[in-house]
From TrEMBL:
Residues 1-19 form the signal peptide. Keywords: Signal. It comes from the Eukaryota. The keyword Signal applies. This is Saposin B-type domain-containing protein. The lineage of its organism: Eukaryota, Metazoa, Ecdysozoa, Nematoda, Chromadorea.
Amino acid sequence: MLFVFFLLIASVACHVVPADPQKSIAISDDIQCAVCQFLAVSVAAKSGSHRNIAHCLRFNGCEKELEECEIVSILHDEIQKTPEKFVSSREAVAAAHSKCTSNSMALAISEDASATQCMLCFLVYDTLKYINYNILENPMLLTVQNAIEAACAFLNEQLCQALFEPHAFEAIIRGLQDSLGGFYDLIAMQGFGCVDYTKLFGECPGH
């Protein structure tokens, strides 16, 4: 439940806030595994290192390294459930999914580090936009904190240390909740190495 939110990375935006704040929001094991492994592939593609999925194996059912097309298929199917929440990222994911349609073993994520970075940044952008506009004032705030804490395996170490100083996270979030630009700068730019969101659409093909 913790990791997927945020990236992205992406699947928290597919779920609405429950009427009962005490109830958990169910996020499937395969989504948690796919999002985590997507981040692992993205980091490896950008750095030229070998994919490290050790952090992902703690999720139920995430017992092996997924093929890149398996990851893309899971993300694509999830996005199709609520495409209006992924206006920016769905084209990038669809392009990767198209490669997999003709070749299930295609390196749909790692083959083009630049395209992968765009996909990652758009997923982060769409998710942060949803978080910023919809859930910062409700009980899911703790879920966001837990998700970012879990995502620290892939984020800048100094950034994570600063985020989780006593009371720092709550103060930062409350200060940034009216500013998507500030939230994006903190998480996407400093955490994932994305360009400024005002330049993102110009630098990534198809946008």
